[in-house]
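Notes, Module 5: Reading structure tokens.

Key idea: the token line is not a picture. It is a compressed description, and you learn to read it the same way you learned to read a sequence, by spotting repeated patterns. We will look at two proteins. The first is printed below with its tokens.
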Amino acid sequence: MTEQTIEADGITLCHESFGDPDAPPLLLVMGLAAPMIWWDDEFCAQLAEAGFHVHRFDNRDVGRSQWWTGRASLPLAYFLRSAPYSLGDLADDAGKLLDALGIERAHVVGTSMGGMIAQEFAIRHPQRVRTLTSIMSTTGARTVGLPSPRAALAMLAPGPRTREDYVMQLVRTSKLIGSREYLFDEEHFRQRAERTYDRGLNPAGVFRQLAAILSSRDRTADLRRLSVPSLVIHGTADPLVHVSGGRATARALGADLDLIPGMGHDLPREVWPRVIAGIKRLATR
């Protein structure tokens, strides 16, 4: 179906679904500064073909969902855990979306910051999670999942002023943090960047989302208490969220751990069958 805007208990969220409405629902949660279209259309279609009714959405402060207000200070977020909103608020947004769609329980899949949101959602609303898949993410513990210095600097680079600047910057950053063992499809990332810019760019929202990450708590103890069937997927060559974050998440959850050799902070087309098979295997277990 085409994108639709949903009023969900006080927040406006942009949402799109794929597949048979009678199939088990699966919610995809995207990461920092990333609109829902970063879940590639074809990837979503393949998940639908695997037997899910797939839902993707823009988190608050990105794309066509509601843009927030308030100034984010990254030092205050890190040292005082003060931010305009939290990962818990983002997780509650996901719950409000499910409510608006009439979905009681769903398979939940999150990547990067989306994995953190998915973990937080499972902690807050375990009865609503059929299965949890956390991809290239971490627990919130400040001793694991740390970025390389080069990747961290790329995330803090000044925002671009024009469409072409944004496209160039996103292509460059995607190549820097992506999978070096797989062919980099520059045209794919250029088209993604153009589509992202045209849907609406919110630089202040990026810092608010980043503040939510930096101010977040260590979820390890809460993850250990969960009994939700879980899968953790991580690339062994991820420069943005070190693979130690994935290992720590799997230990805390008691989850299956799939480490993909040579994968960076992206989902190359070549690994889609492996990722989709893992999600389906978990769902049918």
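Here is the second protein, with the sequence above and the tokens below, as before.
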Amino acid sequence: MGKVADIGSKRLINLAPDAWVQWVTQRPEVVAKEILGSEFHWISRETDVLVKAYSATHGDFLVLNELQLRYTAQMPLRMRAYTALAQERYRLPTYPVLINILPPPSTLTIVSSYEQEFLGLRAIQDYRVINLWEIDAEIVFQQPLPSLLPFVPILRGGGEVSVVQRALQALRADAQLNELESLLAFFASFVLDTPLVQQIMRWDMAVLRESPWYQEIEQRGIQQGARRQLIRVLEQRFGEIPHEVEVRFEGESVEKLENLMDSAIAVSSLEEFVVILST
């Protein structure tokens, strides 16, 4: 049976930090100097990784890596906040990168900047967006990018059995990588039938349930179910719901969605519900 994977983002990027920063910045001369702490007092996230990098042209700078399982409407504001906090803490220019692992709901449009204007003042933060489902799986083997090997099944062209087997062989050939088998199997289960994944991996798929990624997917499934139920109740009571109202449900906890469900049942108008939503 494969070992439970240490699948923290810092662990993955640390497998080949130079190759990683060169890939996300698209600049082959960049090298990684150090993976830094990314806890900003009240913020501590495993998916947020800061790398101190260097290039002869730009000197020292930060590469902020945000690996997001699924994009949410809150991501632009989060990228703005994290970038500012990183730059303030380390006093270095910051190159923020958002890596989306799985496609978001069709109701969401992925954007690559945060923009707000208030009382004549503007706040703008650009960041690079990498959607893994748009990345050619062959790049992982050619460059190589060992940090992306577990994600091969969800990359473009990576869902073929032969490609998944190739990624598995690469993981098992390196003692530093073979503990990532369960993460590879997890993402393979999105594109291949479970018995076929079991046959490829040659171990019990129950190991996936021990993965934090599996638990996060499961939790998000519960959240999405609660979100859909809330929308259904609102539509039944008040007709079509404005898109800007639906978007505000993204990323909310199950507890918050359940409370909103109680409100949706109790209020007498959609306008009254929106007031409660804004509090």
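Summary for the second protein:
- The chain is about 40% helix and 20% strand.
- The CA atoms of residues 23 and 200 lie 29 Å apart.
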